[in-house]
Design brief:
CATH class: Mainly Beta
CATH superfamily: G protein-activated inward rectifier potassium channel 1
Largest sheet: 5 strands, mixed
Distance between the termini: 60 Å
CATH architecture: Sandwich
Strand content: over 45%
CATH topology: Immunoglobulin-like
Helix content: under 10%
Radius of gyration: 18 Å
Number of strands: 14
Number of helices: 2
Length: 178
Amino acid sequence: MPAFPDRKHFLRFTDKAIIAPYKNGTALMFRLAPTKNNHLTDAEVKLTLGMSIEDNGKRVNKFYDLPLELAKVNTINLSWTLVHAIDDKSALYNLSLDDLKSCRVEIIAFVKAFDETYSNTVVARTSYTAEEINFGERYLPMYHRSDDGSVTILDLDKLNLTEKAELAVQINEVEASK
């Protein structure tokens, strides 16, 4: 038995990020969920967009913060859907899937939380390339009440479950207006 327990799999992320309807526009979203019964508190997420663009005839890497609707939570009990609104302040504004691919976009997520079970800070990272971002989908619920209504059950098998969704502004319309 190892001297220290294996804590590297305390969070699970969706396999793909999505561009989904959000308020009167769209948003980049992905989900995470705890995979163990550890009590994770003071959780925060930082989201960064990395892209390769042409600047004065040279290919350069640029990085942009992607603000989240809710970047900190007191505790992660069920799933947490991270939401970056794509508006005129977003580095993703007016970018099509082809744009994301040609700029070799990568969205990098960094999660930090306090694990009360082991009394230490834990971190997790994931990233999504353009090929790992699906347009026009929405997440389906991944939890339900128990038969007797006494507890909420989190179904980790539904973490990646989505359905098609109509976007408020279709990407083709955005491209046509440029």
